[in-house]
Here is the input.
Amino acid sequence: MSQLNGAYYGPAIPPQKSYNRPGRGSGVGCCCGCLFSCLFSLIFKVILTLIIIVAIAVFIFWLIVRPNMVKFHVTDATLTEFNYTNNTLHYDLALNITVRNPNKRLGIYYDFIEANALFHDARFNTQYPDPFYQGHKTTHVLNPVFKGDKVLVLDADQSSELKKENSTGLYEIDVKMYLRVRFKLGAFKTKTLKPKVSCDLRVPFKGSATAFETIKCDWDR
Here is the structure.
């Protein structure tokens, strides 16, 4: 009986060996790809978090400070001489320029002011008003006087405009100011900024029937 059972079942069959070929993208390559993906995801999350933090900080700062643009106005202009002969311009122009700081918490240091007077893009004088500090919600008045003689060679268009304005007694004179300013919030001061201020004027010659109208200047950051 035991012989029959042994003959019937026979010897045990050994298990077949499995031969797996390493496929592409597996092993070390797979680990490197996962690492790069995780690193990229981490960097993206850090950058996104920083952007959100900065945005929140700026918003909170705006809510607290509520910064407003500084306002420049030319409230008066007196032109007593504007004569062009022999390529020389003789001029005498006095201005009142009001500078208004409307901010409740920001003070302003005007460290440098350069004021240029131009007739149709031809600069004929430069003045340097004194530096000053402007406190919260205050108004400061600048009184630059452009007076003297300047050798100018006007082109055909500028000469034509001068003839027209001589006949009307109303002159188009631009004043451009180059500033170096710092803003102050409590004990904190910003770095130096260099804004530009442009005032496009129509100045009547003294004694003419036309009165000067207040001009709002443009603040260009």
Observations:
- Residues 69-218 form a domain with the Immunoglobulin-like fold (CATH 2.60.40).
- The first strand starts at residue 71 and ends at 85.
